[in-house]
Amino acid sequence: MATDEQLSAIRAKIDALDTQLLELISERARCAQEVASVKLEASRGDSEEAPIFYRPEREAQVLRAIQERNPGPLPAEYMARIFREIMSSCLALEQPLTVAYLGPPGTYTQAAARKHFGQSAIQEPHSSIAKVFRQIEERRCDFGIVPVENSTEGMVGETLDCFLESPVRIVGEIELPVIHHLFVGEKTESGDISYVAGHPQALAQCRSWLDANLPSVPRKEVSSNGEAARLASEEVGVAAIAGDLATEMYALVRRSISIQDYASNTTRFLVLGNEFVPPSGNDKTSVLIASRNRPGALLSLLRPFEEAGISLTRIDSRPSKTEKWTYVFFIEFEGHLEEAVVARIMEELEEQSIMLKRLGSYPCAPL
């Protein structure tokens, strides 16, 4: 039949294309190995400086270029995800990366780690944000992933507090759409839910749905949605608020889908590291500033940005913990510390503040 002949011809073409793709990906991997050899050879002449294999600004530039050049029909973001995995696998040939994240397995933070570093990075779960910071400080892991803000619930105070004491830098950001589902264990029947477990922010983000559908069921705050999923998998009668990744880690049944109150619910994560990131062409900078306690102090800190035409993307405050009723401001803005206009602003802020901590400049999330 003509249809069978047409399909056979198309499949033969697909097979030929797959062979070409395999050859090209293999050639790219060999280039990655050559890059590693060059870097290792160069580092032998400088015993104090280890080679840097992962370059956040370079990866962001590549992913942006892929999306800009994508001819379709695959959406640009899908194409970028494919290249992310290719880059992740090639980087593993150079130097496997270890990435600490807020665990346990199955959390949105792990999903963010996968999105940013791909499947080939070695992922290590840790029980608190502070422990993730320590892994990077002590160089036990190459990078760390921590949540910093949610579009409906605001900033994550523990992350900002850790920056007050830690010397680690921000080297990247990840934006992850948060889609909450209600899971139960395989042995939990429909009407047997004794309580709903979830991270405090997840419970808050699903408050309206829970009020309408499970109004009399108690809610239990746990350290993470991954922990909620673990509880649901082990205890009959426990329901968990978690994401799709939880089904890969635990034996769960999805009882209800997309129960978050806002469809645009998004969590932003920061990538922690120890190295300074050069400009990528589309960057953000984060700083911590402690101002003198006087009228108009915050206005004075913000005025240099206005005068320079620099857009602020985030401002938040945290108690300084050194003096009663004094605060430290977390300020995030467009631009890079190497830019002349940003350098001038930093000089002005140093004159007006009692503490200015440059947390880092980093590429805006490319995906």
Structure at a glance:
This protein is of the alpha/beta class and 367 residues long. It is built from twelve helices and 15 strands.
Give a description of the structure.
- By secondary structure, the protein is of the alpha/beta class.
- Among the domains are: 181-264, Periplasmic binding protein-like II (D-Maltodextrin-Binding Protein, domain 2); 277-363, Alpha-Beta Plaits (2-Layer Sandwich).
- 43% of the residues lie in helices and 26% in strands.
- The chain is built from twelve helices and 15 strands.
- The chain has helices at 2-44, 56-69, 76-94, 108-117, 129-137, 157-165, 200-205, 207-213, 225-234, 246-249, 297-308, 340-352; strands at residues 98-102, 122-126, 143-150, 154-155, 169-177, 181-185, 195-198, 219-221, 238-242, 252-256, 266-273, 283-291, 312-319, 327-334, 353-363.
- The strands form three sheets. Strands 1, 2, 3, 4, 5 and 11 form a six-stranded mixed β-sheet that branches. A five-stranded mixed β-sheet has the order 8-7-9-6-10. Strands 13-14-12-15 form a four-stranded antiparallel β-sheet, with helices on both faces.
- Strand 1, helix 4 and strand 2 (122-126) form a beta-alpha-beta unit.
- The protein starts with a helix and ends with a strand.
